[in-house]
Design brief:
It contains 12 helices and no strands. It is mainly alpha-helical and 260 residues long. Helix 1 packs across helix 12 and helix 8 packs across helix 9. Bound molecules: iron/sulfur cluster (SF4).
C-alpha cells in the first residue's frame, strides 16, 4: 500500500511539473526539422554532442542536397563523413546513418510511412537492434519523427527526478520512462488544462532549448504525443538553464516550489 501511494504521489508530482513549466514557457517547438528524415538524422547526430554542432552538420548536408533518404543512400561514405564532421564521432555516425537507410530499404521498401505504420513496441525493438541506437535515440525517432506515444528520457530528466527525490539518477531507462508516461497520460484527456491553442499560453523563448516553429514542430499529432513532445523540451529547458550538473540554480527555477 505504501509503495502504491508513493508511486501515485510521484506521478502527481511529475504532472505538476509539466503544468507549471508549460504554463510558464508554453510550446517549445521540438523537434526543429523540416522532414521526418531530418529528425532521424538529427537524432543520430546529436549523440554525445551539442546541438549547435549538429546544426552545422545538418546545414552542410542540406547545402549539398543530401539531407534526404535518397541523398544518404547514394552519398559515398567518405563524403558523408566529411559533411557531418562537425557533429563529432563522424565515422561512426556516418556508418550508422547508412545502416539505418539499409534497414529501411530491406524491411520497409525505403518507406518511412510503412515503417512508422508498425506498432510502437515492434518498431521500438527493431530500432533498438540497429547499430548505435539506444533507447534515447530510438524514442526520439519514434516520438518526434513518427508521432508514436513514447517519452524520451535524457540526462536532464534523470537529474531533475533525482534532485526532487522521485527516482535515483541511476534508475533504469525503462523505469523512468514508465513513470513519466503514466504521469502524463491523464493530461491528454484533461480538458481543463490549457491546450496548445489556448490564448492563456504564450510561448516563451527558453535560451538554447526552445525553437522557432518548424514544419515538424507544428505537424498535427495526438494530444498524448504532443504532451510527451512538450515535456521533453521543457525538461531540457530546466536542465540547461537551471538544473545544471555542477550547481542547481533553484532560486529562479520554476520547479522550486516542488523541491522536497
Ligand atoms: S534547479 Fe532546483 S528547483 Fe530546478 S529542477 Fe533543479 S533541483 Fe529542482
Amino acid at each position: 500500500m505504501k509503495l502504491a501511494e508513493k508511486t501515485r504521489s510521484n506521478e502527481e508530482q511529475v504532472r505538476a511539473y509539466y503544468e507549471t513549466l508549460f504554463r510558464a514557457w508554453g510550446r517549445q517547438h521540438w523537434w526543429p526539422a523540416r522532414t521526418r528524415f531530418e529528425v532521424i538524422v538529427g537524432a543520430y547526430l546529436t549523440q554525445n554532442t551539442a546541438w549547435t554542432n549538429v546544426e552545422r552538420a545538418l546545414r552542410s548536408l542540406r547545402a549539398s542536397g543530401l539531407l534526404t533518404l535518397e541523398g544518404i543512400r547514394r552519398v559515398p561514405l567518405p563524403q558523408l563523413e566529411a559533411l557531418i564532421r562537425s557533429a563529432g564521432y563522424f565515422r561512426q555516425k556516418a556508418r550508422r546513418l547508412k545502416t539505418f537507410v539499409s534497414y529501411l530499404d530491406e524491411h520497409y521498401g525505403g518507406s518511412l510511412n510503412q515503417m512508422f505504420a508498425q506498432s510502437t513496441e515492434r518498431l521500438r525493438e527493431e530500432l533498438l537492434a540497429l547499430n548505435g541506437v539506444g533507447p534515447e535515440t530510438a524514442d526520439s525517432i519514434l516520438l518526434y519523427a513518427g508521432n508514436h506515444p513514447v517519452f524520451v528520457v535524457d540526462a536532464y530528466t534523470r537529474r531533475v527526478l533525482d534532485r526532487h527525490g522521485i527516482l535515483a539518477e541511476k534508475a533504469g531507462y525503462e523505469e523512468i520512462r514508465a513513470v513519466l508516461e503514466r504521469a502524463l497520460a491523464p493530461l491528454a484527456s484533461d480538458v481543463s488544462f490549457p491546450s496548445e491553442g489556448s490564448k492563456s499560453i504564450s510561448a516563451t523563448i527558453v535560451p538554447g532549448t526552445s525553437h522557432p516553429p518548424s514544419s515538424m514542430s507544428i505537424a498535427k499529432r495526438s494530444p498524448l504525443v504532443q504532451i510527451y513532445n512538450e515535456m521533453h523540451g521543457l525538461i531540457v529547458g530546466v536542465g540547461k538553464n537551471y538544473c545544471v550538473k555542477s550547481k542547481a540554480r533553484c532560486e529562479a527555477c520554476p520547479l522550486k516550489p516542488y523541491l522536497p
